[in-house]
Structures are given as C-alpha cells and as structure tokens.
Amino acid sequence: MQRLVDHALAVTKESVKAVTYESVNNIVRIINGVSALLLALLPGKANMLEGIQGWELRPTFRGPRLPRWMEKRMQSLKDQIIHRATDRRRGVVEDVHLAIEICIEAVFDFFHKAAHLLLSPSEAFVALVSLFSSHGSGIEQDHDPFKDAAISTATRGGDGPAPTERSTNLHQSLNTDARTCQDVITELGYPYEAIHVITSDGYIILLERIPRRDSRKAVFLQHGVLDSSMGWVSNGVVGSPAFAAYDQGYDVFLGNFRGLVSREHVNKNISSREYWRYSINEHGTEDVPAMIEKIHEVKCAELKLSKPDCEEEIDDYQPYKLCAISHSLGGAAMIMYVVTQKIQEKPHRLSRLILLSPAGFHDDSNIVFSTVEFMLVLVAPILSLFVPAFYIPTRFFRMLVNKLARDLHNLPAVGGLVQTLMGYVVGGDSSNWVGVLGLPHYNMNDMPGVSFRVALHLAQIKRTRRFRMFDYGASTNIEVYGSPEPLDLAECYGIIDIPVDLVAGQKDKVIRPTMVRRHYKLMKGAGVNVSYNEFEYAHLDFTFSHREELLSYVMSRLLLVDPNHKPQRVARSKKKEQIAAASRD
C-alpha cells in the first residue's frame, strides 16, 4: 500500500510541476511575443540590433531534462572538464521556476510524510514518543533555516540507481554573478594585484594591476562613466585591451574612478550627500593624479630608481615609460590631468595618450541629450538638494537589475525591444546596451553611479560648447580658478607635450566623430603631436566588443614609445617660460 501511495504522489507531483512550468512558460512566451510585435513596428530596429549577434526572437526555456541522478553526475563531470568563467546568474524567470519547484517539493514532501505515518501506525507512535522525549530532555540545537532547506528533487524510478538529493536553498535562489575584475583576471590564469589608493580629499579608490614587475613599459587604462576596470577585461583573453597589452610585455594598471555605491572613503561615516559632492574636476585633479603617482611609486621601488643629482633643475626622470588608454569620460579626465599638471609645473609622467571616443565636447548631440542638458541646468539648484547622485541604492533592486539583464538574454524579443529603446534614447547608437547590463560589475553588492555634479558638469560643457572645468559660480570661481570663468582646457592644449592619439567611432551617437575631430583640430592648431583615426564602431564597442582591428591599432600606437629612449631634460626655468607663453596664447 505504501509503495502504491508513493507512486501516486510521485506521478501527481511531476504532473503538477509540468502543468505549472508550462503555464509560466506560456506567460513568458506571450510577453516575448508582444515584445516581438512591438519590435517589428518600431522603425530603425535593424540598426539598433547590430551590436547583438545571433539573436532570435524565440525565448529560451529549459528543455526535457535527464533524470535527476544522471543530471547531477553529468554536471559534476562537466565542471571538472570545463573551466567555468561564464555568466553564473539566474534570471527572474528562472527564479520563478525554482521557487515553484521548492513550493511543490515542500507540499508533496508533507503529504508523503503524512501518508507514511497514517499507513505505518507503529512508526508514527515511535516518532511521537521521540518528539516528546526530545522536548523533555531540554536539548536545543541551533537551527539555520537557510542551511537546512535541502529538498529532495529525485523521483522514484524502476531499477535505476538510488535517487539522490539536490540541496536547494534560498541563498542559491538569489544567485547573481558578483565576480570582480580580480576574479576574471585570475580565472584566466593571469597574475593580479590590488592597490588601494587614497586621494588627497580622502576617497579610497582601487587601482588594479596585471603585474610585470621587471617591465620598463607600463600602460594605464581608465574607464568612462558608469563603468569600471571590468570593461578592459570583459572580452576575455582574445578581445580585451588589458590582456593584449600584458601579452605584449606591458605592466598593466587598471584605474577606477570614485563613485561606487559602497562609498569607499577614509571617513567611514561620510554621508551620501558629501560623498557624491564631486564633478569631473575631481576625476582629473584628484583620482588620476593619485593613481599615477602610486604607479610611479610602485615602479620606482621595483626598478630601484635612483634620482638624478640635479633634480632641482630638471624634470623628474623615470626609467620606465607610462602610456595611458582612456575611454569616453576617462579621456576627458586624462586631458584635464595633463593640462592641470603642466599648469602647476608638476610631472604628469606620461609618454603617450590614446583616447578612445573622448568626452569634452558635446554640443553635436540628439534632442534627448539636449533636453536633459536644459533640464539639469534649469533645476540644478533644487534637484541637487534631493538627488546627490544617480545610482541604485538598495541591494534588492541591484539584484533585480542584475537578474533582469539575464532575462533579457533568455528572452531575445524583450531584450531586442529594450536595446532598441535604449538606442532611441542615445540618438541611435547601436552599442550592445543589453549586453553591458549583464556584466558582473552591475551586481547586487556594488555598482557604479554618477554624481549629480558630474552630470551637471557635462550639461555645462554641452551648453557652453567649450571644454571647461566645473562652473561653481562667479564668486567661487575666483577662489578656485582665480577668475570669474572656469578654466578653459581647450585653450591650454598648447602645453600638452606628449603625443596624443584620438580615435572616433563612425556609428558613435553618444560622442560623435565631429566632437572628437574638434579635439583634433584644436590640438593640431596648438602644435600638439596628435593623430586622428576613425573606426566603424558605436560608443561601447571600444571596450565591450571584440574588435581585432582596434586592438591592433592601439598596440601599434603603444609600440611607438621606446622604453629605452631617454627623454630630453628641460630646465625648469625654460619650462616656466614655455607654459606661460602657452597660457597667454
């Protein structure tokens, strides 16, 4: 009788699972179908989907599965053979499947135990006695409901192997991909070093490194807005600039701007309003100098640099060459860094700048950006009181975004719709916006944000059509810059004393080629050793897409710097005259 009941419960359980799964899948198919219909009606969808290769409009669901015991053994074997460096998240739809499975298993486990006790009175009596005896003995055990939530997902078969249990708990059900840049680098077999840098205003930023300690050529890579060092390694060994530079013998340093939800600062009690109180100024005059000085300190210690005897008369000399590769906002910050260091007569320690779609000029943009710029400048005094930054503040919503990004890949029509709408917002840029949302640095533990002042600074640049530092207002500008107007960086291009390579994307609608060409024309007119090149890329293709021709070009520019060449030493008095002349011009 017990065997008959067990078989009946097992059949009923699997039937309920099948019906429930199919109902959920039908709902998802409807959502995906409606998205496909909307996508078909929207104009320009073909261009928007260029960055997403191999997508179909059919959703991806779990197919017929092997028996549980066989599935577990196959997965165990697969984990031993294949090095897993892939996306480990489960999407919301997959979580719904898992939650349904947990509930069904729990309900049928209750009925199974109840039927077993009813059909076996002797065992029920023994269980009842043991229950009372355990209460009477006063024994208490620590209980972790998350730890013990193991649920048998095996079904009884004929003569097959004994069923096994698959532990499913709530921690696993919240599974997201929270890999760091360190995880990606070390998983691929490269060395890694983390260096915590403290800026002069107290921010703690992470400088990451793929070290070649004896190398006399180093490269510093700096990301753009809403990004992190993850962007430089996200394409794996073959398509990532960081790994390409390391394989060419470079000591690779990956910079990270301030601006994480975790709010790393020497003042552990810093308020959100105070933490996010910075503009692009601080990226260029605090973050970048702190990281580059740390690089200089590390390389000098490793290469045992001995300073020249006449240090007070000449520029600081270094026995290594440091080049910088920057993207988007990182490019604007690097230009600001070089210009302000020269104005302050401090060494910038760079031998070459490679700027991929650099920010700085933004007046050639679409109506959405223009509207945002107008609104930010208009309501800034009021909005800044309530919105210190644009970020996702709670772990739950960050987790939700992380999981929804996985669903956008499992449901291509929905992902295509989101991709198309994002393309409309940024003026038709065909970057893989959906794919970027799926990167591990957008996770529940931490996530990049944008301070209100950075957004306002970009709006000021767009409105004035000039690449200037942050405008605090006439009175504060006099205190900070010595004049009622902010420092115009483009007017100081003449003091840039290193080669600069500008790269634009023909399909880039965020920072259009016309804006990068303006940098080029102003630098060329100021006598800077500058080059300009264009690729048929969208804005995010410079970092998040595997582009062999771009990697080849970037490496070729780096190789123009000879690490054994000693730079010409310029007397400080002569350098002062050059800088003063450039500032007057």
Description of the structure:
The protein folds into two domains: 165 residues, no CATH class; 250 residues, Rossmann fold (3-Layer(aba) Sandwich), CATH 3.40.50. The strands form two sheets. An eight-stranded mixed β-sheet has the order 1-2-4-3-5-6-9-10, with helices on both faces. The protein starts with a helix and ends with a helix. α13 crosses α17 and α14 packs across α15. The protein is built from 22 helices and ten strands. β9, α19 and β10 form a beta-alpha-beta unit. The radius of gyration is 29 Å and the shape is elongated. By secondary structure, the chain is α/β, with parallel strands linked by helices.
Summarize the model shown.
The chain is of the alpha/beta class and 585 residues long.
Q: What is the overall shape?
A: elongated
Q: What's the architecture of the largest domain in CATH terms?
A: 3-Layer(aba) Sandwich
How does the helix and strand content classify structurally?
Answer: alpha/beta
The oligomeric status of these chains comes to single chain
Mean pLDDT, rounded to whole units? 80
E-strand count = 10
CATH secondary-structure class of the largest domain? Alpha Beta
Sheet with most strands: strand arrangement = 1-2-4-3-5-6-9-10
Note the beta-strand portion.
Answer: 5-15%
Work out the count of structural domains.
2
Major sheet details? 8 strands, mixed
Annotated CATH topology of the largest domain:
Rossmann fold
- Report the uncertain regions: 46-56, 61-74, 76-87, 139-173, 306-315, 570-575
CATH superfamily of the largest domain: Alpha/Beta hydrolase fold, catalytic domain
